[in-house]
Queue: 3 jobs
Job 1
Amino acid sequence: MKTEINQRQVFFRLMKYAKPYWKSILFAFFLLLLTTAGEVLGPILVKMFIDDYLTPRTFPVGPITALAVAYLTIHIAKVVVSYFQLLKFQEIALNIIQQLRIDVFSKVQSLGMRYFDRTPAGSIVSRITNDTEAIKEMFVEVLVNFIQSGFFLIGVFVAMFSLNVKLALFCTFILPIIFLIIRTYRKYSSVFYSDLRERLSQLNAKLNESLQGMAIIQVFRQQQRLRNEFAQINEKHYKAGIRNIKLDSLLLRPATDVVYVFSLILVLSYFGISSLNSPVEIGVLYAFINYLDRFFEPVNQMMMRLSMFQQAIVASSRVFNLLDEKEHEPKQGEANIEIEAGEIEFRNVYFSYDGKRDVLKNISFKVKPGETIALVGHTGSGKSSIIHLLMRFYEFDRGDILIDGRSIKEYPKAELRKKIGLVLQDPFLFFGTIRDNIRLHNKEMTEEEIIRAAQFIQAHSFIEKLLGQYDHQVVERGTTFSSGQRQLIAFARTIATNPKILLLDEATANIDTETEEAIQLALEKMRKGRTTIAIAHRLSTIQDADQILVLHQGEIVERGNHQQLLAKRGLYYKMYLLQNGLVEDVEHIQHR
C-alpha cells in the first residue's frame, strides 16, 4: 500500500510539469476525442449495412453509397486527426522532458561537494540521461496510449449498452479482473524495475570510472580485472532484466488474452442461447464481437505499456530523489557586501568530511593584504581542506573564517567567486578554444585582457606557436596539452579575473623548472596588494613567503618564516633536509 501511495505521489508530481502546457493538452484531448469517435462509429455503420440492407437483400444505390462515403470519410478523417493528435502529444512530452532535464542539471550544479564525494559520477549521469529518457517514453508512449485507450473504452461501453444492455452489464465484470491483474503487476514490477535501474546506474558508474582512468588501467594492466568487475555488474543487470521479462510474460498480454477468450465465450453463448427463443440480428452480433475485440485491443496496449509506465515511475522517483537532495552548497549571505582589502583570518576552525573524524583541528591564523602565507605538511595533513573551506566548497563545523573582519558566511557567493582566484594542482580545461578557457565565456573580458593575462603568466609564447593560436581547439580535459601547458592556461584564467585573494594548491607542481622561475617572477608581481595562500610540497618555491604554516594531522604544529622554522629544527627542518638530499642529517636528528 505504501508503494502505491509513493507511486501516486511521484506520478502527480510528474504531472505538474504538464501544467504550463494545459492549453495544448486540451487541444490534443479534443483531437483524441475525434479519433475515438471515428473508431466507435465505424462498426455501427457496418452494423447498419448488414441488418438494414445485406440481410433483407435490398440494395438501394443512394443509401448504400451514403453509408460507404460516410465510412471512408470517417476513416480518412480519423487518420488525419490522429496524425496531428500524436504530433501534439509528442511536442508536449518533449517540452516537459526538456524542462525536467534542465531542472535536474541545474540541481546538480547547486549541490555541495559532499554529495559528489559519496556519489559516483556515472550514477548522476544515468539519472540525467537514462532516467529522464524513460520518463520521456512515458509521456510519448504510455500516457497518450492510456488516455486514448480510456476514451475508446468509454466509447465502446456506450456503444455496447446502446446495442444490448443486459450483455453489456455482463461484460462489465471484465473490469475488476483486469484491475486485479494491473494491481498485481504494479506491486511486483516496481521492486524489479528499481533493481534494474540501480544496476544500470552501476554500469554507467563503472564505465565512467574506466574511461576516466584508462591510462592507469593500461599502464598497470588492469583490463582483465575491470572487465570481470563490469561483467559481474552486467550479469546482475541481466538477472534483474530476466525477472522483469518473466513477470511481463505472465501478467501482461497472456493474462488479458485468457480474459478475452472467456469474454468471447460469454458473448457467443449469450447469442447462441438467445437464438433458441428468437432470431438474432447478424449485424448486432458482428458489432458486439467487433466492440469486444476493440475493447481488448486497447486493454492489451495498456497492459503492454504498463511495463514502460512502471519503468518511468521508478526512473521519476530516482530523478526526484536527486531534485530533493539536501546536500546543497554552504549557504551564503545576500547582502551587498564586497571584499575590499582581502584580509583573511581563521579562528579556531574545526572541520570533518564525514562528521566523525576531524581533518582540521583548531586552525587559527591571519593573513594581511599583500602578504603571502604558505601551507606545508605531509599528505593528508589538511592543507587542501583549508583551501576548500575558504572557497566555500564545504561548511566548517566550528569556529569561523573572516574576510575583512566579516564572517565568510555573510558574503554573497558571487562576490567570493569574483574576488577569490583558485589554481589547482590538476587543472581542468573545457572543450572549446584556448580563448574560451581563459575567458570562461565572460563577454565583458576583452581580447587585450586575455592576451595580457597569458603574457603575464608566460603562456603567450607557447600559445602563439599553436595552430590557430588563441582559437586552437581544446579537446576534453585538455589531454593534448602537456601538464605544464594546462597549468599555464589555468593560471592565465585566474589572473584574467584580477582577484583580490589568490589561492594556489601546488599550482607549479607540473611546470618545468625554467617555466616555474618565470612564473615565480610573475607571482611576485601578482602578490603585490593581494592576499595569497599557497600550498607547496617543494619548499624552495615558498621560501620568500611572509609566513609558513606547518600542518601535521590537521593541526598547525609550527609557524614562522623560512629562516625561523629552520632555526627551530623541527618538522619543517626535517622536510627541508629530506628535499635537499641530506638524509643522514635527518637520521641523526631523529636518533637525538
Job 2
Amino acid sequence: MTRERLYLFDTTLRDGALTTGVDFSLDDKMNIALMLDRLGVDYVEGGYPGANPLDTEFFTKKRTKRAKFCAFGMTKRAGRSIGNDPGVAGLLASDTDAIVYVAKSWDYHVHVALGCTLEENLECIAESVRAAIDSGREAMVDLEHFFDGYKANPDYALACAATTIRSGARWAVMCDTNGGTLPHEIERIVAEVARVIPGDRLAIHAHNDTGNAVANSLAAIRAGARQVQGTLNGLGERCGNANLVTLIPTLALKDEFAKAFEIGVTPEALKEITLVSRAFDELLNRSPNRHAPYVGASAFATKAGIHASALAKDPRTYEHVTPDSVGNKRAILVSDQAGRSNLLSELARLGVECDPADPRLNRLLETVKERESQGFAYEGADASFELLARAALGGVPDFFEVESFHVGVERKVVAPGVTYSASQAVVKIRIGDDGFISAAEGNGPVNALDLALRKDLGVYQKHIENLVLRDYRVRVFQGGTDAVTRVLIEFGDGDRDTWSTVGVSGNVIDASFQALVEGIVYRLVKLGVPAQ
C-alpha cells in the first residue's frame, strides 16, 4: 500500500525561543538548524528577519542543506501596499526557501487587534501570499487562533484558509494558539475543514496549555492534516508547543501512522533522536527530563520486581517500542521495591558478572534496601550502585584514600554596597605511600571541593582530565533540624558517556563530597585503571 507523505515542520528557533529562560545565540541557532536538518525534518523556521541584529544576520544565507529554510512574519498591514510594508520587505529580502505569514482568522481579532474589515484582512492574506510566490518562495499562512475563530464564526475562519490556498500558498496552518482546544474538538473541526480544503494543504500547529499538544496534533493528522508543526523537547511560550521529539517516534513506530504515512526521518536517524534531545538540552544548559516519552532516562525504566521478571520473559510486556529504535536503553532500577530479578537484570546490563546462586546477592539486595531507607536513591545513581555491587561481589580497587577535607567560605565588603564571596577547599589524599594536598577556590563550596579533589590525583590525573560535572541536585530527605540531605551528581567524559552518583549525609557538603569521590572512582573502574 502506498503511504501518504506527512511533513514535519520545526519552529524551535521561533516559538522555542519564547520559552522563559531560553535565549539563542547566533551559533546556537546555526547549530540547532543543522541538528534538525540531519534529523530529517522538512521545514526549519528560523524566526523573524529584521526583528533584531542577530536574526538579521541569521537570515543572510540559507542555514539548512536538505530542509526548507523558512522566515516568519506578519502579512502586510491593511491600508499599505506590499512595496510599502517593511515587515514584508524583510521577509522578501531573506535568503530562504519559504515564507511563513501569520494572519488573524478569528473575526473578533480582525476587528479589535487589526482594526480593519474582514474583507481587508482577506485581501492582506492574498496579496502577501502572492508576493512570496512572485519572489520564488513557497508560501504558507499561520492562521492564528484558528480553532477559536472557527467556533465563533466558522464561515470566516474557513474563508481565511480558503483565501490562503486560492492565492497559491502551499499550506494553510490551523493554529491552536492558546492551546485550549481538546483532541475531540480538533479532530471534528479539521475533518470539517478538510471537506472544503484538501488535507494535503492543511497543517496543524498546537500549543500545550492543556497538556494535549501531541494528542491534538495526532488528532489533526487522523482528520486529514498532512503537515505537523512543533519544537524540540516541546519548548515554547507558556506551557510549550507540540513536542516533535515525542511526535516523530509515534509517527514512525505506531502502526496506525507508520503504515499510513511516510516521514522524512529515516529509521537510522530515528535512532539518534535521544541524542538530539539531550544534546539540545545540553546546549541550553538544561537538565533533560528523565521521564520524557521515548528519550528520557526513565522512559524504559522498571522498578518493581514483578515487572522486571515479566520483562525478562517478554520485553513487550512493559515496553511499547524497543528502546534501541529511538537510541535509548532499558534500565532495570534497583531500589527498596526491587526484587532479585531487578538485581540480576541490572547487574547483567552493567556487565557485572555473578552466579545467580551466589549468596552474596541476597546480602547486596538487603544492603540496597537498607541504604535507601537512609536516603540513598540508586535508581538515579547507576554508578554508585555499580560500585556498591562490585564491592559486595568482588571488590573495587583501592585507588586512593581521602584522609581529610576542609571547606571555608569568605564573604566581605569590598566597597560600600558591594560584597565579595568565595569558597576555598583543601583536600588531603593518599595514594600508596604518597600523600597529596590540593587547594582550590571555587564558586561555592561544592565547586571548590570538586576543583581541589581533581587538581592532583597523581598517577590517575591523566585519566580524569576530560571529566565534566554536568548536573548537581540536592533534596532534603527528612525535614527538621536533623535533616538528611541527598545529593545526586551527573558526570560526563566530554563525549557521550554519562554516569550519576549519590551521597547522603546530614551535611550537604559531606554528601556532595561522597558523590564527587564516587564519580572519580567509577571513571577509573570503567577505564580499567589498575590501583597503585
Job 3
Amino acid sequence: MSATPPPTPVGVRTLTEALRRFDADALTRLLGLRPDLAYPVPADVAELSAQATTTSSVTRALDGLNAWQRVVAEALAALPDPAALGDLAALLGAEPAGCSAAVVDLRERALLWGADDELHLVRAARDHLGPYPGGLTPPSSRPLDPGTVDTLLAEAGPEARAVVDRLLWSPAGAVSGADRAVTVGTARTPLEQLLARRLLRPAGSDTVLLPREVAWHLRGERFTPEPVPVTAPTLTGRVRTPALVDRAAVGAAYGFVHDVELVAHTLQSTPHRLLREGGVAVRDVTGLGRVLGTDHQHATFVLECGAASGLLAVGDGGRLLPTVDYDRWAEREPADRWRALAAAWRHSDRLPGAASEPGAHALGPESEAPGAASVRGLLTELLAQAPVGTVLDLTDLLDVVSWHRPRLVRVGGVALESVLSWTWREAGWLGISSLGAVSGLAGAALAADTHPLPADLAEAFPATVEQIVLQADLTAVAPGPVPYRLARELRLLADQESRGGAAVFRFSGASLRRAFDAGWSAADVHRWLEHHATTDPPQPLAYLIDDIARHHGSIRVGPAQAYVRIADPAQVAALLTHPDASVLGLRELAPGVLVATAEPYEVVDFLHRIGHSPAGEDSSGRSVTAPDPLRAPRRSAHRPRPDVQAGEAAAAVLLGEQSRHTRRSVQAGAGAGPGADPGATAANLSRLATAEQTQEPVRIRYVAADGRPAARELRAVRADAGLVRGVDVASAETVSIAMSRVSSVDPAVRTSPLD
C-alpha cells in the first residue's frame, strides 16, 4: 500500500520519541521495509525501537538499501553526530533534493531520526559502516589546508605521493614502527617523509592513517571514486511485438504446467528414491528428462519447482511422490496451476541452477541458498516494471540489480552473475520472459500470491478438450489439453509419447494390461472410447483390446502368502520347471492350484515378466483392483511470509487499537507475541478443552522458535502444564507447543498451502 512519509521529527531526543510520532501508514511502511521487526509483534513503541537498533536488524536493513541510500548513510556516518542536511549535500556534492529524499527513506526505515538540521544515524548503523565510512578518517584536531598539503607532498617526493595514492580510498595502512620519532631532517624512506610532514599520522605502533583533509583534497573533494546515480538505471532495449511475446510466453507457461503434471505421473508409477545424502540421483533426473523430451537442467528445475509448490515430497521408504495436494492442484484451471508454481518459485530459498551443476543433485542440499527468494523477488519486480516485449541484456540486468542491492555479491555462496543467469533462464521456462523479452506474465508472477491472472492472459491459456482422435496406428491424439481426470485415465490406457498442449498417446498390450490390472474390463475400455473418441475405435485397436482381455485373468493370484490358480496343466508344468519357481517357493497343492512363499505382488511381477497376464483376487476369490496411487504427506509449499496485512495489524497494536478484529488479525498473521489478548488466551484454552473431550482435530497458529508465524493441525490434543500436546495430522509426529506462543485455536479445516 502507499504510505505518506513520517513527519519530520522536530525537537525529538531519541528514536523512540520519533517512532511515537509515526502514524498508522508510516508504521505499516516501516514494518513492510523491515519485516523482522514484526515477528513477534512488539508490545509497544519502546520495544519496537529496541528491536530496530539491534545489530542484526540494522545489518539486514542496511543490506536492503539501494546504492544511493547506502552512500547517503555512509556520508552521515562520516559526518559528526548530529549532521545537517546542507553538510550532507556538500559532502556528497549532490543536489539537496536527492539527499532529502534519501534522508526520508532512511527515516522511514528507522535508521535515522531527527530534523533536517539535526540528523542522527543510529549507533548500530555507524558501527556497521566501520571506523572510516567513505574511506575518510575522523576530522583532524590540527587540519592542514589544501595549499599546505600540495607543498608538503612536493617536498616529500614522487615515491611518497605513490604511498598516499594507495591510501586515498582506504586510509589505514599496516606498518611496523608507525609511532617512531622522525623529523624532516632524519626522514629516509617515503613513509618517514610523510610521517615527518604530518601527511600520515600514526594510530598505534603498527598502523598509519591518511588524514581526512589530505584524502579529501587529493580526491578532488569526492566522496566516492565514481558518481553514484540518485535513481535506478532503467531496463531498456529493443522491443518485440508484445502480443507475439505474450503468446509465446503463455505457451511456455502451459508447457511447464504440463511438465510438472507429467513428472508427477511418472513418479507415482516408477519408484524414484532419494539418495542417502539427499537429492535425486543424476540418472533418475536424466530419465525424467527423456520422459519430458528435454535436458537435465530443465528436468531438475521441474523437480525443484514441484517440490517448492508442495506438489512433490518424500513419502514412505524415501520415495519421491506426489503429495496429497497434487490432485487438488491438477484439477484447477491451467492459469491457476501456473500461478501456484510461479508464486512458489518466487519465494523459494533454493537455487535450482546450482542443483543442475556437475556433482550436485536435484532436491539436494547443494541448492539451499538463503536470500535466493529476495533476489528472485527483486528480479520479478524489475521485469514487471519494464514494458512488455522489451528485449533485455543480462549485463544491463546485472547493473540494475547491483544498484538496487549494492551489497549483494553472492547468494548461497554463488556469484550474483551466475544466479541472475540461472534466474533469467528459469523465467523463460515459466513464461515470465519469452523470446528473450519481458512478457505480461512478469506482472502476474509478481502478484501471483494474491491476484488471479489478468483476463486477457488467462484466456490465452489453451482451453481443455474432452475428445480424443483415434488413429489406425494404435495412437490417440489429444488436440488440446485434457482435464486431469481424463488425462489420468488416458495415461492408464495408453503410454504418452509427446508432451505439450496437443499430446500423442499409444495403446499397446502392456498399457491395456495395466488398465485391466487396475480393474477395468474390455467393456469398460470400449465404453470409455465410445464416450471420449470422436470416431469408433479402428479395427486394430478393437481387436487388441478384446485379445488382451481374453488372456487377462486366466491365471489367478491370491495370498497364501500367495496362491496361483491355473486352468491349463501345461502352464502349471511350465511354471513349476521355471528356474525362478524355487525362489518364489512355488509348489502344486492340487490340480491347477499352486502356492508360493512370496508376497502376491512378487508372484504377479514374476508372471508378468515371463509373458503371462495374471489377475489379482482376494481370499474369497473376488477380483481386486490396483490400490490408489501413492501419495506423500502434505508439505508446506514455502514458509509464511510477512505481508501488508500483517504490517497493518502490528501497526494497529502499536498505536493502541484494541478492537477484537485487529487483535485476531495480529494473532493470525504474526503469532501471539508479547501483546497477546488475555481474553483470546482464555478462548483458546476453552477450545482446547473442547477438542480434548471430543477428540476432534484443531488448527493451531503459533510463533515458532525462530520468531516466524506457523500453523499445525493436531489431533489427540491435550493442554496441561503450560503446553499444548498433540499429533501432527500431516506428519504423524508428536509435538509440544508452549501455550504462551499460541495465537489462535480453530476447528481443523483442510486448506492447501497452494490456496
